[in-house]
Amino acid sequence: MPRVGLNQRAVVAEAARLADEVGLQQLTLAALAGRLGVALPSLYKHVRGADALIQKLSALATAELATELTTAAAGRAGGDALRAMADAYRDYARRHPGRYPATQRVPDPADPEHVVAGERAVGAIYAVLRGYGLTGDDAVDATRALRSALHGFVSLEAAGGFGLPREVDRSYHQLVAGLDVSFRSWPVDAP
Amino acid sequence: MPRVGLNQRAVVAEAARLADEVGLQQLTLAALAGRLGVALPSLYKHVRGADALIQKLSALATAELATELTTAAAGRAGGDALRAMADAYRDYARRHPGRYPATQRVPDPADPEHVVAGERAVGAIYAVLRGYGLTGDDAVDATRALRSALHGFVSLEAAGGFGLPREVDRSYHQLVAGLDVSFRSWPVDAP
DNA sequence: GCCATAAAGCTAACCCTATTAGCCAACGCC
DNA sequence: GGCGTTGGCTAATAGGGTTAGCTTTATGGC
Questions:
Q1: pLDDT in tens, A101-127
Q2: Does B165 touch chain A (CB under 8 A)?
Q3: How far apart are CA B10 and CA B52, in angstroms?
Q4: Most buried of A15, A106, B26, B127, CB within 10 angstroms?
Q5: Could you tell me the domains of chain B?
Q6: Cα–Cα distances in angstroms (integers) from residue B108 to residues B54, B93, B104, B130, in the given order
């Protein structure tokens, strides 16, 4: 009986592909094992269990997203960088409907790769905000605002929450333009 | 053997309480049945199944949220109304960590109560935006932006996504202030 | 008051997923 | 070529959801 020759990387990579096809909720060890041509319990040689698998998938997706955000913002500044990054963000979420929700898991402190990926993603946002002259507490608030707006939009869109016929692209464009305006006069009012 | 005397309302209400305690993901028919002092299959006399239960829970939570948003905005206008509504939104999500995520399910078209609840919630937002002079497509875009920002913030907060020590209340306040600024000059740029 | 019927509960059985234990065989190294 | 490591397997357990079919309670018409 020849071996399939799996390792953790391959298992997680296939899990990511499967998640994108069927959705993160429907990602099941049974289906994954079937995909890999292996019996279900064999997966336990490579991952600790279902939860650990998703955590690893989160690390992978976060790293991918961080890279795409960084690339998008490279060589741009201010509103240009913001728009490019926002587009990259939404684009990733739409191309990877299964991986994207996994990126919202908080990184496992025991997984250095995961932690680094998370820092890279936040760092990319920070860099864009620096272009608006934001640092310190203001940058923290602005980062949270940006993440909230992008994540909120993208997840409502994925959930089918936008019923009306009005073009979603236009709405996203407006949202990002609104963020640009806000960041220009950040912090918006005195506490 | 005396009857417990359940009905769908009671089952869904208890499901909502349980979800708030253990999380929507951990809401299980088995646990719910135990709570209600009934065997698991008995629940099928009142709900079609696990998925239908969550959909009913979504209808309940959406109705509650719509009411709270409407109440918060009543008697206020402009930035005042926006802030009151945003506070009510986050407050609901924090008081009801299990119900809140259920509100993001798209309403079941076959459930008139659910549909109405969804319309009331969106209507409350629309009313606030009318205070900014927004109507038509602009209001659609602004509604999506507002929902995205609030939902994004609240769900990142619930997921523990805000690691830094910076006060979360302050960040939320800034986010809402930023929305206020944006809505004042909406639409932000020409398409 | 009585009985027919609908509704509310039950048990039993089945399927699917995750997990653990323990066995066996393939691969890699010396 | 032996031999340890390790990647795969089967079997078994537990938990959740679902369906079928039975029993008993409440209820309403007469």
A1: 999 999 999 999 999 999 999 999 999
A2: no
A3: 15
A4: A15
A5: 8-184 (1.10.357.10)
A6: 11, 21, 12, 27
